[in-house]
């Protein structure tokens, strides 16, 4: 059975957002608000509130216990300041707080303290939702794993120099320094004596 780590995160967030639309309610000011001071305009998607809530839920599952401050850093970005250097700004804390409160009321998350860390952790209901949606999605093969699997499938290549074919030389290009034949040193001319030509 696939877990949240085995599937494509974008596909998982999109499907969880559809599920959260039944449980959560976006505030009436959601269509007009920016998601941070670094943004110039509000989101263009109508369901952005539920997509952000699904992304926050997945982040809590992966990194919990986690608080508003770290989530603000995760959903922040660089502000375009014209000719001046870009600066990184945190995302909107109000949006994240409201989403966390809604997830708490729906029973997907709760406040907890684990050792010295305190913040939101996911509840069994939240784990169940993410696991159920992840099991419906195809397993996503990461690029690094795909390259590793591809190398395992290739037949062994011999590195014996005698079995390697010589590289063709093209005009204007020289072979690498290690492949060049050594040139014999030219004999130096004898020094000329005065009066000889």
Annotated CATH architecture of the domain at 9-139: Orthogonal Bundle
By CATH, the superfamily of the domain at 9-139 comes out as Winged helix-like DNA-binding domain superfamily/Winged helix DNA-binding domain
Unreliable runs, pLDDT <50, ≥5 residues? none
- The total count of strands amounts to 4
Please state the overall shape, judged from the principal axes of the Cα atoms: elongated
Structural class by sheet pairing and helices: mainly alpha
CATH-defined topology of the domain at 9-139: Arc Repressor Mutant, subunit A
Order of helices and strands: HHHEEHEEHH
Using the coordinates above, name the CATH class of the domain at 9-139.
Mainly Alpha
Largest sheet: 2 strands, antiparallel
End-to-end CA span: 92 Å
Whole-number radius of gyration? 31 Å
Strand order across the largest sheet: 1-2
Q: Average pLDDT across residues?
A: 81
How helix-rich are the residues, as a percent range? 25-40%
Q: Tell me the strand percentage band.
A: 5-15%
* Number of separate helices: 6
Description:
The protein is mostly helical and 197 residues long. It has a domain at 9-139: Winged helix-like DNA-binding domain superfamily/Winged helix DNA-binding domain (Arc Repressor Mutant, subunit A, Orthogonal Bundle), CATH 1.10.10. It is 39% helix and 9% strand. The chain contains six helices and four strands; from the N terminus they run αααββαββαα. The strands form two sheets. Strands 1-2 form a two-stranded antiparallel ribbon. Strands 3-4 form a two-stranded antiparallel sheet. Strand 3 (109-114) and strand 4 form a beta hairpin.
């Amino acid at each position: 059975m696939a877990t949240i780590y085995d599937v494509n995160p974008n596909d998982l967030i999109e499907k969880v957002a559809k599920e959260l639309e039944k449980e959560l309610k976006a505030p009436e000011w959601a269509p007009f608000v920016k998601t941070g001071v670094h943004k110039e305009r509000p989101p263009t998607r109508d369901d952005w509130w539920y997509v952000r809530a699904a992304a926050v839920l997945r982040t809590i599952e992966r990194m919990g216990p986690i608080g508003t401050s770290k989530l603000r850093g995760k959903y922040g970005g660089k502000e375009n300041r014209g000719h001046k250097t870009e600066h990184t700004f945190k995302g909107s804390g109000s949006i994240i707080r409201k989403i966390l409160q809604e997830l708490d009321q729906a029973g997907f998350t709760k406040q907890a303290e684990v050792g010295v860390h305190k913040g939101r952790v996911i509840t069994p209901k939240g784990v169940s939702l993410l696991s159920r949606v992840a099991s419906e999605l195809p397993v996503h093969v990461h690029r690094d794993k795909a390259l590793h699997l591809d190398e395992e499938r290739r037949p062994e290549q011999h590195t014996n120099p005698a079995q390697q074919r010589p590289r063709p030389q093209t005009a204007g290009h020289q072979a690498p320094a290690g492949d060049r034949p050594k040139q014999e040193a030219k004999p130096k001319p004898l020094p000329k004596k005065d009066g000889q030509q």
